[in-house]
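Please, structure for the following, as tokens.
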Amino acid sequence: MKNKKHLLVILFSALITFRASGQNCSSLNIQLQADIPSVCGLMTVTMIHDNLNRPYIYVANKTGGLTIYDVNVLTAPNLVATVSTLQFDTLDVMNVSQSGNYLYLALGNSFTNPQKGGMAIIDVTVPTAPAVTDYYVVPASNSGAGIVKVEGNYAYLGAMKSGLVILDVTNKFNILFVSQFIPNINWPVNNPNPNFYNARGMEVKNDIVYLCYDAGGLRIINCVNKLAPVQTGQYANPATYVPLNLPRAYNNLVLDDSLVYVTVDYCGLEVLDVSDTSAISLYGWWNPYNCPNNNWFTSPSHTNEIMYNQNCRQLFLSTGKSDMMVIDISNPAQPDSCNWYGGVNNNIGTWGVGMYQNQLYLAYICTFGIPFASNYTGVKILTYTPCSTGIDDAVNYSSFAVYPNPATDEIQIDIVIDEHNAELFIYNSLGEEVIRLDNITSKQVSVNIAELPSGLYFVSQKNDFEHVNSKFAVQK
């Protein structure tokens, strides 16, 4: 079935362009500002910056619980509070997200010595005085939890082998179970090793869950009816399991309208078109290490968490023993690395990545040679120069109206560049130019698209000083 909320509904989206160049890689100027070391027994996993613009970061510190740092002085972070795991059944803190004045913790070790999976709610109205309001443990779970996301009054817990668990968090002092959905593990291969099928990465938008299901690929789950979630789509790259019969781990993702950017362990980054959830397609692939022919133990990159700077069209990936890679997606069909931090031979490796304004946070983990060695754990705070203050200052990126959307035979485009001789380009999902209009002088243009097949298209309008971009879909 098709996801009606997402099927060919392309909103006015800024910053999609193929002809405008991305930020010059050298202008990122990534700089280390501070180091927050920990010890392997209190390993950092991931972290987020306070989303109410207060100067704090919240660190999922595994057996160390939740730790909160004041980063008002970025070069001198200061520990201001700790929430012990003793307050939620001694379950390790594996992931953290925020909605308003509340943090939501994914609980339960999913690495070695797996625990029960669960979720806790923390009141951070005063970040220096956090308070646990309630916690919930998934019955019969034994593989921890990897991620939690919140939309409205519902929390969505990626509970590893226990699948997707939906919780009602209307009352922060009384978490209520709503439903549980465990995707079928007999796809993309039959009778797989069940240890490789885990709900671990997630985005939620408009009651739709985009779930990274480890070796089970990407699963899209319609949760409009919270009591009866329904899977509407699935995707795994055939190149990674045909004929090898060993699908690679889909770890994490970010969503950008009808495109999903997915980290795929040592197979890099996949760009997937999910405009039709029943027919998900591979749109682009950053695969610098020749997956699936590379080796899990020797690959220099193991992509896990991902952050998206939409203004700059850049992705920041935690990449295991390569620390962090930056991917330019100014052309999503051809993602390409453009900068990095760290190195393959520094004997340390990342798991988590966070972003706030021009700040980046990397969480390092201890490992003992599988799949790489890392003898350091902690958080490194970095800064970089975003494109809004870099060499693209003279170029204004914005969006404009394309309607109807979806369309069949003709579209109207409202021109926003107030200058003669503007150019307009339309590209298909492969980045190929299919329509070009020159010397535009009117405020509105009608474009005949009757010959275009169904699919996703990108419009780019430009002159010497501005790039204006949008998307539309053709549905026949």
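The chain is about 0% helix and 45% strand. The radius of gyration is 22 Å.
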